[in-house]
Amino acid sequence: MEGLILRRAALFLPGQLRRLYDWVLSWADHPRAGTALALLAFAEASFFPIPPDVLLIALALARREGAFRWAGLATAGSVAGGALGYFIGWQFMAAVGGRILAFYHLTEAYETVRVLFHRYDAWAVAAAGFTPIPYKLFTIAAGAFGISLPTFLAASLLSRGARFFLVAGLVYVFGPPIRAFLERYFNLCTLIFAVLLVGGFLVLKWML
């Protein structure tokens, strides 16, 4: 997972990013850790480089009885942050949205997302919300391309909720041993799950 974080924020120097990563983890022992998790998820959905999963895992490991509460907070914060990203793309793409994407070297990917939205509409958001694909790219692009806001929010809630509750559930069931597995195979697991999820809905749509 840490490798994913580094790739997501290539413009940061490794030392700077490591300090930012450690700062995020330091909130795990804070009395307001839940608030910090929700705010981190909110910020990551539109501009912040560190994904909330790192703090979610730390909190769920420290207080396993609250694992699903942490997942709920992360989901709520992320969907709200996605709405902010949508608003940035809708109203401030040239002034703000484009700069955020350029900062993370996502300008070329933005054009690819244009094609994905044209073909799959909200399914592109659902895939991005669950997988390691930078969610902020899709939230900003959704607003810029005029994707239906209710559809966008529903897809975000479904995908972000699935992601965070899956992480919380694994930690709750398996405890500390699952941490190494998640850090090593998290990207692969989420990609496989997303393919199965979207594929299942496409088959259902075809049958109906």
TrEMBL record:
The chain crosses the membrane at residues 68-88, 137-155, 162-179, 185-204. One of its GO terms (cellular component) is plasma membrane. It comes from Dissulfurirhabdus thermomarina. The keyword Transmembrane applies. InterPro entries: DedA_domain, VTT_dom. Residues 50-172 form the VTT domain. PANTHER family: ALKALINE PHOSPHATASE LIKE PROTEIN, DEDA FAMILY PROTEIN. The keyword Transmembrane helix applies. Keywords: Membrane, Transmembrane, Transmembrane helix. This is DedA family protein.
